[in-house]
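Reader question, answered in our methods column.
A reader sent in the components of a multi-part assembly and asked whether the whole thing could be modeled at once rather than chain by chain. We filled in our standard form and ran it. Here is what they sent:
COMPLEX SIZE: four components
ENTRIES:
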Amino acid sequence: MTNIRDIAKIAGVSVSTVSRVLNHHPYVSEEKRRAVETAVIQTNYHQNMNAIHLSTGKTNIIGVVVPFTNHPYFGKLVEGMMEQAEQDNHKIILFQTNYRLEREREALDMLKYKQLDGLILCSREIDWPFLLEYREYGPIVLAEKTSQQTFSASYIDHYQAFSQALSFLYDKGYRKIGYCVGRQNGANSKQRWQAYQDFLKENGLEYNRDYTYYGCYQFEDGAHIALKWLEQKNRPEALLVANDQIAAGMVTVCRKHHVDIPHQLALIGFDNQPIANFMEITTIDLPLLQMGQQLFQQALQPDHISEHQFVTSLIERQTV
Amino acid sequence: MTNIRDIAKIAGVSVSTVSRVLNHHPYVSEEKRRAVETAVIQTNYHQNMNAIHLSTGKTNIIGVVVPFTNHPYFGKLVEGMMEQAEQDNHKIILFQTNYRLEREREALDMLKYKQLDGLILCSREIDWPFLLEYREYGPIVLAEKTSQQTFSASYIDHYQAFSQALSFLYDKGYRKIGYCVGRQNGANSKQRWQAYQDFLKENGLEYNRDYTYYGCYQFEDGAHIALKWLEQKNRPEALLVANDQIAAGMVTVCRKHHVDIPHQLALIGFDNQPIANFMEITTIDLPLLQMGQQLFQQALQPDHISEHQFVTSLIERQTV
DNA sequence: ATTTGAACTGAAACGCGTTTCATACGCTAT
DNA sequence: ATAGCGTATGAAACGCGTTTCAGTTCAAAT
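And here is the structure of the entire assembly that came back:
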């Protein structure tokens, strides 16, 4: 394999000049530029990225940690990041963790070992003090509220989104309101829990553990929850559902069992996915694309810590 | 930042010895090993991966090109690869192309620039002659039948799968059989087309262009196809559907419009996803996990070209 | 005529590990 | 006694670009 010194020799110039031509620096005579270009083509020379990375100390690669990729929420988020990455001439490496700490650590270690210029954590498994140890190795951006000046962050205001949806249901006359989400202890889930508790208290409603469901990620899960709902004695009359896929699964099962939506059961989804539009599911639109872009931009600013909160909007359709 | 020479100085040894300790080479005295380890901990030293990559000429990273990640077919495939990668102590970088050639080229270029040790193309946009140019830069593994000795490959025998499904429908008495897939010109789609044409010819059936549908990738697409089907005058009575999500979308719409499945319309999905089980969709199981593992193993063998064909099995449920 | 500075070029240092080669010690086999 | 081998260690070369610094040339400004 040819390297830059070979090219220099062939073109009859110094390596500096070759490097200048390769990087489109000014101050190279037309004549030498031509000579270098000829040598490059003739030998089919191309740079060794590892050498460049080592030399410059940068990689132009940003890591992105997500629990799943085959999930519309994270899919949209990543889509936004990709758009931005393309604009800023950076690459993205996706880390799918399935919420496993070790996988998350792999990503963090790649930052530590200088294989990444920055890292975006769309979900976080690692505990705060351990995360802090990685602070020095490069910008880490979070998709959750941190309220500290340590990391940049962009996030959906899940408290607001949940409150909004709960009030909406309350105003429509529903009183037995519950929700189903993925995990009980995620950062977002805690916010939702808080919004739910505050809502109950404000409106003098009692908490009923039968109204909350966990382990919901996709269509099938919704279907299973619906079946569970059918068997319950004390049923909620309205549910907030972590995403539209799940809601679609519920609607499907309910239709099959002739449950009247929204009269017997009202549903509000999240994400405003195409399937929600198609199945006429009332949902909450999340500005995930913009959020993704924002997250990416923050990852490129090692020295500037910022926090952005995104607001959501309710889209009324047929399931409430 | 400390480097290996700093450590050497602190520990009072040579860089070679430090390197030996770091890489668990034999022939280091207990005494010096201890000294190095102390220095490493004391300074919080860690290796610079870019230097290692440059020095060794390897990265232990395999690139994987997929059109989408939020797609169960590719999701499963990648899952299989990840398992294998973990075992073999390698990393995977995922490239989502959305079938865009430029994105695919990015991946190929990373191979060229030595950022990857190998590349797995789960979908291919680039034309054969151009792909050949990348041959020299490292192992490229394809997920399609190549029948050449140039690249390793592992693939589903889509011809067999389609034939199997078509015969099954024929035996059940269906004659107006069609199918819906994603793209018209993908490598897999061509195989399917061929199987379809051969099937028609063998059984003396006539080709009807109204029986084939394109642009199907997920749930909503299936829903739309079903609506289209409802409006058709000349309807197929049975359909092979590129994946179970799409089939589920069709079932949903059909139920809503009181179409009797399987009597008015029979469906066979692909992938045997959870949703197919849940909605009792007859489907074809694809050994994607194993295929993913196989693909990955092939990517680690630069010098050994091999080709593996995977067979499928029909799972009978309620939609035929 | 002289100063100033922009345009151009190359030598050498630098980023940081890995690996080869030479050397040295101590012990065993002949 | 000595060849031979395993153990242990370091100097130096190597992988390959980028960047700094010093130096040259030639034209414009004073």
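What stands out: The radius of gyration of chain B is 26 Å. Residues 3-5, 15-16, 18-19, 22-23, 47-48, 50-56 of chain B lie near DNA strand C (CB under 10 Å from a C1').
Send us your own complexes using the same form.
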